[in-house]
Amino acid sequence: MTGYGKAMGIYGDKKIYAEVKSLNSKALDLSTRIAPLYREKEMEIRALITQELERGKIDFNLWIEKENDATATPINAALVSNYYEQIKNISTQYGIPQPQDWIATLLRMPDVLTRVDIQELDEEEWKFTRNIITQAISQLVDFRNQEGAALEKKFLEKIDNITRLMKEIEPYEEERVKKIRERITESLSRLTADYDNNRMEQELIYYIEKLDINEEKQRLANHLTYFRTTLAEGHGQGKKLGFIAQEMGREINTTGSKSNHAEMQNIVVKMKDELEQIKEQVLNVL
């Protein structure tokens, strides 16, 4: 869900900028900084962003730059003249010395340098500005699409790796059962007391069945297939992929706990590593 977009347009003496950034988040978390002229359109801007971006921690910024001569605060000449006459009259009436630096004194008077012009947003300018906002959002969406294509390739690579590692376990399964049987039989052979061979065989079968991982392997294979299918469905599957990854983790953990074999456990560790990388990156998916 990471992305960045920025667009700029010139309208009259203004340069209008729109910038939008997105980071990972389970829900939509939108914060905005909007130039005063466009604040009346904040709800429309929010609706536009929400419709296009859906999820993520999103920062949106809309601001204006003007030419230097246009942005300079004008001096209120009429007010300066009025202050000048008042100060002179007070000085004459009360015998108070006039200021030595008239300019500095007058510029410090209230509202002399206060901008009094009030701007109103007309529909034509808003249409122009809205188009700039749309361009910035489109850039972010394009960025997300590029990231998504790279993520899809990465996911498929990790799924292939887990599938391959799952198959690598199979040769060790038969070897493991054989070693367990030999170890138990050898331990029993050292006993001086008699034991029931049939009962021993039943207990051995029960013990080996408890270590059987065929069900876990089958469920994991189903989850891997489901992950691929969901990934191919495209947009809006991020949470679903996260849930599937959790189920994959359960089967891999159970396989590890049942392994009772060094090589099998090493392979399970590798599978966990591949899955962890999937879980980290699935947060980037819408």
| Shape call | elongated
Structural class: alpha+beta
Distance between the termini: 6 Å
Number of strands: 4
Helix content: 55-70%
Helical run tally: 9
Q: What percentage of the residues does DSSP assign to strands (E)?
A: 5-15%
> What radius of gyration results from the CA coordinates?
37 Å
- Helix/strand order: EEEHEHHHHHHHH
Which regions contain 5 or more consecutive residues with pLDDT less than 50? none
Strand order of the largest sheet: 1-2-4-3
Largest sheet: 4 strands, mixed
Mean pLDDT over the residues: 85
Return the domain count: 3
What does this protein structure show overall?
- This protein has 286 residues and is of the alpha+beta class.
- It folds into 3 domains: 3-70 and 122-144, Ribosomal Protein S5, domain 2, CATH 3.30.230; 75-107; 147-282, no CATH class.
- Helices cover 64% and strands 13% of the residues.
- α1 runs parallel beside α5 (123-189).
- 17% of the residues are buried.
- The mean pLDDT is 85.
List the helices and strands and how they pair.
Elements: E1 3-11, E2 14-23, E3 28-34, H1 42-53, E4 56-66, H2 68-71, H3 77-94, H4 102-107, H5 123-189, H6 197-210, H7 214-232, H8 238-259, H9 262-282
Parallel strand pairs: 3-4
Antiparallel strand pairs: 1-2, 2-4
Helix pairs in contact: 1-5, 5-7, 5-9, 7-8, 8-9
